[in-house]
Amino acid sequence: FQETLDASTGFPVSFKNFDTQEVFDTMQMLRPPVETLRSTKRGVARSAGSTYIYDFPALFRISLMKLWLKSVDAEQIPSHLITAKELALEGDELVEKEQSGKNTIGMVVWLLTLRTPEYPDGRDV
C-alpha cells in the first residue's frame, strides 16, 4: 500500500493498493479482515515460521519494482512486472490450471514471466 499523508498533520489519510489501484480511507483500512481459506492457510504458514506459497509472486513483484527503481525513472517501469501461471500435473503433462490454494498436494509450480531492466520484454523462469 502507498500512503497519502495529510499535509498539515502528517497522518495518513488514504491508502492505495499497488495491485488493484483501489484507494481506501483510514476507516476502511482499520476494519478487521474477513477470514478466508487463503488467510487461514497464510496464518498457518506464518505460525510455522514460513511464508504462504501464494504470497511469493507478490514478493517477487516487490523485488522487481526495487530493481527497476535502481535502474530507471519510475515513469519508465513497465506496468506488469510479473506474470504467474500456475501449473498442475495431469497425467504426464504440466497444464495451466488456476488452483489458488485449492491443490491437495504439497507442491506448487508456476511459469513466471519476469520483466527486468535486462529483459524488459520478460523472461520465463
Spell out the helices and strands N to C: EEEHHHEEEE
Compute the CA-based radius of gyration.
Answer: 18 Å
Helical run tally:
3
Spans of at least 5 consecutive residues with low confidence? none
pLDDT averaged residue by residue: 87
Strand portion? 25-35%
Most strands sheet? 4 strands, antiparallel
Task: Name the strands of the widest sheet in spatial order.
Answer: 5-4-6-7
Shape: flat
Terminal CA distance: 27 Å
Q: Count of DSSP E strands? A: 7
Helix content: 25-40%
The assigned structural class equals alpha+beta
How would you summarize this macromolecular structure in one to three sentences?
With 125 residues, the protein is an alpha+beta fold. It has helices spanning 26-30, 37-47, 56-71, and strands at residues 2-5, 12-16, 23-25, 82-90, 93-96, 109-114, 123-124.
Please give a structural write-up.
It is flat and about 60 Å long. Helix content is 26%, strand content 26%. The chain has helices spanning 26-30, 37-47, 56-71; strands spanning 2-5, 12-16, 23-25, 82-90, 93-96, 109-114, 123-124. The chain contains 3 helices and 7 strands, in the order βββαααββββ. The chain has a 4-stranded antiparallel β-sheet with strand order 5-4-6-7. Strands 1-2-3 form a 3-stranded antiparallel β-sheet. It is an alpha+beta fold and 125 residues long. A hairpin with a 2-residue loop joins strand 4 (82-90) and strand 5 (93-96).
Give keywords:
alpha+beta; three-stranded antiparallel sheet; four-stranded antiparallel sheet
